[in-house]
Amino acid sequence: MCSHFPLCPAAGSPDREAAHVISAHPDQGWSLLCNGVVLFEDTGLLLPDGSVVAPHRAPALA
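Given the sequence above, the corresponding structure tokens read:
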């Protein structure tokens, strides 16, 4: 799905939220990332396989 270089992180990887936004809908509170993840403004995620990740704090980047 990703055509960026370097490739965006896969939906199953721990850094999946670092993928590029390909469709932003701030008025509705969500964005679609290049790896197929739907990121909600409350930090919850909907993964491409239909599983849900509850709202969470993103890990701090070193």
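The chain has a mean pLDDT of 88. Try to locate this feature in the token string yourself.
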